[in-house]
Write a structure and sequence with these properties.
With 295 residues, the protein is of the alpha+beta class. It contains seven helices and ten strands. The protein folds into two domains: 91 residues; 149 residues, 2-Layer Sandwich (Alpha-Beta Plaits), CATH 3.30.70.1880. The protein has a five-stranded antiparallel β-sheet with strand order 3-2-7-1-8, covered by helices on one side. It is rod-shaped, with a radius of gyration of 55 Å. The two termini are 101 Å apart. The N terminus and C terminus are likely disordered.
């Protein structure tokens, strides 16, 4: 198959034609055109060679005159364009310098932003670590204060009055207080009585046949749940002052009392308390504080 030359492809000699100076290009094309015409003209055997030479000289003179005019025109045009070219070159150099300055400024700005970003990243990691530490601290406080539902191993205690006990032998608020204090001293982490989670503001108070806990009336039998180490909680309870006092009450008054280890206990969170009024330094009695708190 034959090759087809694209319109974009330069003809032979095209590259050389583009690179030639203007004056050389004009001279070369004029001479080539004259040679082609002379070569194509038929030879007349009867023509006078002298007259032919004279005609050729005249043509040559005309061509030289034309070339001279073109050369002068090209020189004038080149001189006119020289200031414009120099101005364009200076403008381009100024633009290049401006772009270089802008690039250097952007590089410095990028470096500053990168350092700022690194500093902020370090600070963010510190804040995240501090936040995690504070969350753990709040969680521990919520567990201790009773404002978070908790689950874990512990003991289940069931307490009831002796069968046929008279009013002087029933379980009273101070008796439950003794039991709970013994559990706290033994290392219990969370305690509830009949579903009421005990907090630092909880108090036991007699109200007729019932005992108020968190302003809620509770009746026997009382179920006390205490989360703690099942391997030591019962033994440690029996060795505390309050635990010994409670065991003496059970023996003396005949309370029904059982304490069993449990693999998993769930204690509810205490209901949020609303402070109605607080007056500092009036009393340290827990019953008075409990009266000032509404669940």
């Amino acid at each position: 198959m034959g090759s087809v030359m694209s319109d974009r492809e330069s003809p032979p000699g095209g590259g050389e034609r583009i690179t030639l100076p203007l004056l050389d290009l004009i001279t070369r094309e004029a001479l080539e055109s004259e040679y082609r015409e002379a070569h194509a003209r038929p030879v007349d055997p009867t023509a006078d060679p002298v007259a032919g030479r004279v005609g050729s000289r005249r043509v040559t003179a005309v061509v030289c005159a034309v070339l001279g005019v073109l050369a002068v025109t090209a020189a004038v045009q080149t001189n006119r364009n020289a200031p414009v070219d120099e101005s364009s070159r200076a403008a381009l150099i100024a633009q290049v310098n401006d772009r270089r300055e802008n690039l250097a400024l952007l590089e410095r700005l990028r470096g500053d932003l990168r350092r700022t970003n690194d500093d902020l990243q370090v600070r963010l990691e510190q804040v995240i670590e501090e936040e995690l530490s504070e969350r753990n601290r709040v969680r521990r406080l919520q567990v201790r204060t009773g404002h978070l539902q908790v689950r874990g191993p512990g003991v289940r205690i069931a307490v009831d009055n002796a069968e046929g006990a008279d009013p002087t032998q029933v379980i009273r608020d101070e008796d439950l207080t003794t039991l709970v204090n013994g559990l706290w001293q033994a290392g219990a982490e969370a305690i509830s009585v009949n579903g009421e989670r005990l907090t630092v503001l909880s108090a036991f108070r007699n109200r007729g046949p019932a005992i108020l806990v968190n302003s809620q009336p509770l009746n026997p039998p009382y179920v006390v749940l205490a989360i703690g180490n099942t391997a030591t909680l019962q033994a440690d309870f029996a060795n505390t002052t309050s635990g010994l006092k409670w065991l003496n009450l059970v023996h003396a008054l005949g309370f029904e009392f059982t304490m069993d280890n449990q693999g998993s206990l769930t204690l509810p969170a205490a209901r949020p308390a609303t402070l109605r009024s607080v007056q500092e330094g009036l009393s340290t009695d827990r019953d008075v504080v409990d009266e000032e708190i509404a669940s």
